[in-house]
Amino acid sequence: MPLYLSRFSYTPETWARLIGHPEDRAKAAQAYIESVGGKLHGFWYAFGTHDGYNLWEAPDNVSMAAVALAISGGGALASFETTVLLTVDETMDALRKAEGVRYRAPGA
């Protein structure tokens, strides 16, 4: 199954709610991805541009998109970005296929 890395930031209102009622949001994230047949591999909070990161496994892009849309539509996040991760083998296959792509630079 494909892996996905998500970066998220809470709204100030969400932080205020969590301060008033601390909650392990990893459990919620796990339930969301399991509802589409996937798995949560990690949930981390961070300093910096994003408040946290998730590593997910999902059956396909549509399933991951469904989870991302549901989370984004919930209103608790200021931002939510998801990146599809490629394995080394998938990248090697892409590199081999790239050789057959005849790229032409703009204006060339």
The strand count comes to 4
Instruction: Let me know the largest β-sheet.
Output: 4 strands, antiparallel
Tell me the distance between the termini.
Answer: 40 Å
The mean pLDDT is 96
InterPro entries: GYD/TTHA1554
Protein name: GYD domain-containing protein
Pfam family, one: GYD
Concise account of the structure shown:
The chain is an alpha+beta fold and 108 residues long. 39% of the residues lie in helices and 28% in strands. A four-stranded antiparallel sheet has the order 2-3-1-4.
Structure characterization notes:
The protein has helices spanning 12-20, 25-34, 61-72, 88-98, and strands spanning 3-10, 39-45, 52-57, 77-85. The chain has 108 residues and is an alpha+beta fold. The radius of gyration is 18 Å and the shape is elongated. The model has no long low-confidence stretch (mean pLDDT 96). It comes from Streptomyces virginiae (Streptomyces cinnamonensis). InterPro entries: GYD/TTHA1554.
Key traits:
four-stranded antiparallel beta sheet, alpha+beta, 108 residues, GYD domain-containing protein, GYD/TTHA1554, single chain
Draw up the topology in text.
Blueprint: E1 3-10, H1 12-20, H2 25-34, E2 39-45, E3 52-57, H3 61-72, E4 77-85, H4 88-98
Antiparallel strand pairs: 1-3, 1-4, 2-3
